Amino acid sequence: MSIRELIQKRRTIRRFRQEKIESEILSEIIDSARLAPSASNLQPLEFVLVDDPPVVEQIFPFTKWAGYLPNDSGRPPKGSEPVTYVVVLINRDIAFNGGEHDVGAAVENMILTALYHNIGSCWIASVNRKNVRALLKIPSIYEIDCILALGYPDENPVIEPISNSVKYYKDDEGVLHVPKRKLDDIMHRNQF
Ligand SMILES: Cc1cc2nc3c(=O)[nH]c(=O)nc-3n(C[C@H](O)[C@H](O)[C@H](O)COP(=O)(O)O)c2cc1C
């Protein structure tokens, strides 16, 4: 798949098949984060890979899903949960502040590398950080920025041109529709 195809194909996934992801692929995903751009090349990011099923199970309640969908219906139902998580940390000994741009670059690298291996993902910022910190014994010098949930996709969301709302929704068949702004509406050439 070309980079263009990967970018077009990428959608946030919230339904996963219960299939283990190979350890080498997980290492490759984290390595793609390591290789991302970093402000002043400080490289303050570190990652906790969680793929041990009992720990994976304990992380799930500390995550929130698809806030626009009613009655928590965007939350993966039993049997469709992620099989792996990557917890993204900022080492505050290395970067006293900032680091969020580094996170953006690193997470997108991980998302695209995962997708190259047909693995879907959900970038999750709605995290109960206190509970995740305690569970994974993360020292206080590390800020928990976000979590990337991973697994082989069990849904096929689609994009559509935005009409009057940014809110994604599900149709009668349960397909998630994600409105995206049009290129002409966001691109300004040479002057605004
Ligand atoms: C910084 C960031 C935080 C996000 N946090 C969550 C989250 O906590 N829970 C969730 O279900 N989706 C979360 N998402 C996924 C967005 O809802 C999703 O990217 C958006 O609806 C567009 O869909 P798409 O990724 O398929 O283009 C987050 C995305 C980003 C970039």
Descriptive notes:
- It is a single chain.
- This protein has 192 residues and is of the alpha+beta class.
- The protein has 2 domains: 3-156, NADH Oxidase; 157-192, putative fmn-dependent nitroreductase like domains (putative fmn-dependent nitroreductase like fold), CATH 2.20.180.10.
- It contains 6 helices and 8 strands; from the N terminus they run H-E-H-E-H-E-H-E-H-E-E-E-E-H.
- The chain has helices at residues 3-9, 23-34, 53-59, 100-116, 129-136, 183-186; strands at residues 16-17, 45-50, 84-91, 120-124, 142-153, 158-161, 169-170, 176-180.
- The relative contact order is 0.22.
- The structure holds flavin mononucleotide (FMN).
- The site of flavin mononucleotide has 15 residues, from strand 4.
- CATH architecture term of the largest domain: 3-Layer(aba) Sandwich
Mean pLDDT: 98
Provide the gyration radius in Å: 17 Å
Instruction: Give the tally of β-strands.
Output: 8
Number of domains: 2
Bound ligand species: flavin mononucleotide
Helix/strand/pairing category:
alpha+beta
Q: What is the overall shape?
A: globular
Keywords:
2 domains; 8 strands; putative fmn-dependent nitroreductase like fold; NADH Oxidase; 192 residues; three-stranded mixed β-sheet; binds flavin mononucleotide; five-stranded antiparallel β-sheet; alpha+beta
